[in-house]
Design brief:
By secondary structure, chain A is an alpha/beta fold. Chain A is 21% helix and 27% strand. In chain A, strands 1-2-5-4-3 form a five-stranded mixed β-sheet. Chain B is mostly helical. Chain B has helices at 40-59, 65-73, 86-93, 125-137, 148-153, 184-201; strands spanning 116-120, 143-147, 175-177. The chains are: A alpha/beta, B mainly alpha. The complex binds iron/sulfur cluster.
């Protein structure tokens, strides 16, 4: 699918929302969007552009900002599309994609757990890979490798 | 060879048998009671005394503890619980080639049937409380072997955010086996060392 065509459709649908589409090697393209446009853009891509499948959601720490990357797959276009948005690191939060793609559930839990991005209106935002009560976001750049003695993890015994 | 029919006869502790050192712990503790010719009213106090001395011996563990110890240490049942790459060596130790069943070591699938927990791999914080639960579900007496560098001290993941740096933070460990992974021979050696330890402790 032509990246240009997608860009045109998006600009028609969302004029002046700060959404840009850039080509991406081997994929349908990469869409950069502001966090405020998230849900509308998700619904548009799912309902009008047939991106029915969300492959993954990942969080990236860029120190002053945190990036959230989504990968979508379309069965009719047979192509991947990357979405990317950046939120401020002082209060990193974003609308959850679970209402559009239920598969976002666990991926967003992981992104919250690892780089501390909160997903608003997520149905069940709790730890995925770490035990309940774990107090760190270990994939942040500010998280140092610990000497084992320094890492206090409470093991809740049930 | 007909014993007097009315006598509860057990061999008296014979001083001559003290030549072998190991027999001291296993000396027959049943006292010799001569009840031949006792009248009924004398029989009951005699039997009572004999029984209470038996119970006292048992309370000190002299009577059957050595037997239990011998039986227990020669039939260690480890929990069938594979955690990480070390579990492959663990499995291999029970396969045809190394055949740990030679030593009476049979992996069981329920902690209720086990007296040995072999922690064979990386323990993450997420699985830590499950390990404690499994350990507590095992009946006493029980022992723990930390197999491999991960279980011993976190191994290559010692500074990682998700790995318990040594299972001795969670449960008491009796034997540590080094290696990444230890070979099945090392595991068998560790288990034999544990058997020796159990004999020394006399649990
Ligand atoms: S000690 Fe080595 S082989 Fe064993 S679980 Fe750890 S990394 Fe794997």
């Amino acid at each position: 699918m032509a990246t240009d065509e997608l860009n045109q459709r998006i600009q028609q649908r969302f004029p002046d929302r700060g959404i840009t589409v850039e080509p991406f090697e081997g994929l349908a393209g990469r869409v950069l969007f502001p966090p405020a446009a998230a849900l509308e853009l998700f619904r548009f891509l799912r309902d009008d552009r047939s991106f029915h499948h969300l492959s993954f959601v990942a969080g990236v720490d860029w120190k002053s900002e945190r990036e959230v990357v989504y990968a979508l797959w379309s069965d009719t276009e047979r192509d991947y599309l990357l979405l990317s948005t950046r939120v401020d690191a002082s209060d990193p939060h974003l609308e959850s994609a679970t209402s559009v793609w239920p598969s976002a559930n666990w991926h967003e839990r992981e992104a919250w757990e690892m780089v501390g991005i909160r997903f608003d209106h997520h149905p069940d935002l709790r730890h995925l890979l770490m035990p309940d009560g774990y107090e760190f976001h270990p994939l942040l750049r500010s998280f140092k490798l610990h000497e084992p003695e320094e890492l206090e993890v409470k093991v809740r015994h049930v | 060879m007909s014993a007097p029919s009315a006598s509860v006869s057990a061999p008296a502790p014979s001083p001559s048998a003290s030549g072998t050192p190991s027999s001291a712990a296993l000396e027959p503790a049943v006292p010799f009671i001569e009840i031949e010719g006792l009248r009924t009213e004398q029989f009951i106090p005699a039997a009572k005394e004999a029984l209470s001395s038996l119970i006292a011996e048992q309370a000190q563990g002299k009577l059957i503890r050595p037997v239990f110890n011998w039986a227990g240490r020669n039939s260690l049942f480890p929990l069938h619980w594979g955690l990480a790459c070390c579990a492959i060596e663990f499995a291999s130790a029970f396969g045809a080639r190394f055949d740990a069943e030679r030593f009476g070591i049979v992996p069981r699938s329920s902690p209720r049937q086990c007296d040995l927990l072999i922690v064979n791999g990386t323990v993450t914080w997420k699985v830590a409380h499950k390990l404690i639960t499994l350990y507590e579900q095992m009946p006493e007496p029980k022992w723990v072997i930390a197999m491999g560098n991960c279980a011993t001290g976190g191994g290559p993941f010692r500074t990682a955010y998700s790995v318990v740096p040594g299972v001795d933070k969670l449960v008491p460990v009796d034997i540590y086996i080094a290696g990444c992974p230890p070979r099945p021979e090392a595991l068998l050696d560790g288990i034999l060392k544990l058997e020796e330890l159990i004999r020394e402790r006399g649990e």
